[in-house]
Amino acid sequence: MASLSRMTMAERLNRPARTTSPALSQPADDELASSGSLSQEPAAAPVSSPLSSQAAVAAVIVGFKRPRDNDAGETSTRVARKLKLDNKESELLAFASKMPLNEQILFSIGLSLRTMTKVDQMQPADATFKLPEVLKGKIELYSYNALVSPQATGYLEDGARIVLSILERHPKWGLTPEIKENPTHYHVVCSRVYERFNDRRRHIKLAIAESMGTVNQQNPDGDRLNVSDIFTLVSNATKLKGTSSMNLNSVNITVQMLARFAFLRHMLLELPAKANYWKTVDKQLQDIRKRFNGQSKQAISTFFKQILDDDIEEFGTNKANHLDDLGSAALTNTQAEVEDAMLGIISVSTDKECGQSDSKTS
């Protein structure tokens, strides 16, 4: 293989685009065109009081002198201040102070019942809910497909949300409406999805780094040593730690997928020192979207095809003659569903947030 002068991504974006791409018939990036349990049980509401009013009861509790019966409002204010209640809690206390004693008892019972419900939801997540095995398997499969899809608009923000939305569309897999509406249980599901995305990104990045080989110390400007061609890279990326059930049959490799991995390898090759790899990748994809905004699908297809051609020239391949066949490869049902979600063909839910972020992944 000949030594190359690698073109930077900035140079690629500024050069005139080719008008045809015989080996890449499909768009490479279609979307680029556009507090713990309570320590004790709640105290039972009193059935009677030696005092003549609810205000007097509150005063005794916090150490005040017994007020006159018509001073309930003032007493509730002093109680709220003594207990450091916020505005909403103070208003609720003032409201209760004006109730007859029997209504206060019912009001107290109602608050106790609501507190018990909140306590139930505050139990440790792992102790109250375990992911169904079917759901765990679907998270494995769909998180993988979302990361290797050439339609991914980014790798830190959208993938987990898309996977969660797809899981919600199939409640028989385990993510039922009841689980989604339970904050503790839904947090378990979200945590698993984000965990798998974090792990898979790390292993994909490692696979890319290993595929680049090492610099030839005898000839630093020459070919790198022990490199892997693009087919080997994509094959290795499907064999991730902890996912022995994942193999090449989990996805159908297409030219678009090869081109996306060639892009990812190119980005790692020119990554500045100490830069966050995935943040840099997402920023570059955003710049590409701006560069090709309003242009034809063929323009963006040609751009990524050129990156793939350059990768093959630099790292070699023994399967270049099969690129045309790969271009017409059919997607698996899982691939198709993920890509439809990424392209907006099926709706993606945004009404339930997990409260987590992937942005710390390097």
Could you explain how this protein is built, in words?
The protein has helices at 9-14, 54-62, 72-83, 87-97, 101-121, 125-128, 133-148, 159-168, 177-181, 183-211, 230-237, 255-269, 277-291, 297-315, 323-327, 333-342. The protein is mainly α and 362 residues long. The radius of gyration is 30 Å and the shape is elongated. Mean pLDDT is 77; it is low at 27-67 and 241-248.
Short structural description:
The chain is mainly α.
- Helical amount among residues, as a percent range? 40-55%
Low-confidence stretches: 27-67, 241-248
The main sheet comes to: none
**Count of DSSP helices?**
16
Multimerization status: single chain
Percent of residues in β-strands: under 5%
Total number of β-strand segments? 0
Radius of gyration: 30 Å
Mean pLDDT value: 77
Q: Which shape, going by the Cα principal axes?
A: elongated
State the end-to-end CA separation: 32 Å
Secondary structure category: mainly alpha
What is the N-to-C order of secondary-structure elements (H for helix, E for strand)?
HHHHHHHHHHHHHHHH
